[in-house]
Hints:
By secondary structure, the chain is an alpha+beta fold. It has nine helices and seven strands. Strand 5 and strand 6 form a beta hairpin.
Amino acid sequence: MEELLAHARQRYGEIFFQVARQCYPGLAELQDGRFEALFLPWALYRWKPQQSALAGIDSRKGAALPASILAEEYLQEMGEGSKIMRAHVLSCIRTIFRFLKAGRKDSGIFIMEDMLDQRKLRIPAAELPQGTQKGDILFAHTATVEGMTLPTHPPLRMEGCKSDDARDDFEKLQAMVSAQWRNPPAGDRDELRTIVEHLLFMHARHCLDGETE
């Protein structure tokens, strides 16, 4: 991520981050720090600056921004480079923020359920919040390379999903989103990824507050 940060600052300056913050789906939570850790991965790997006009951003500023996701631009300019590095960045671009449910822990590795498409992910316990235990629900952006998954930021534990009723409501919402994700309507798949990601940010906001409706 440090290389991408350097690329963004050298090429576009602070205007890149200023506009990204105004487009960020967790903007309200930036004010109290709860979604701060998620901002940079979203800005570097998921944000499409060409959509900035949708957030009412001055078009003159938008002209100074990359035409695609910054990480995509970075890959195009780096050429072949390290295969592992390229695989990591590509995984970051293709993976949207999502909820993970902690399963069993084996030799320092948690088996996590990706609640969007029900995949099983192997994540080192050291990369998860201290005290993570089976059944915990986390919100995170990750990259998977050679069978191991690593978060791109400290994952958020959804404390608002602790009670049985809150968990039931949450899992019903997730089932609805997951069904739409697996059986998308006709149209732009990439646009669906953006819509689903914004919806999941909204769910995460409610779970942080202990609300699921």
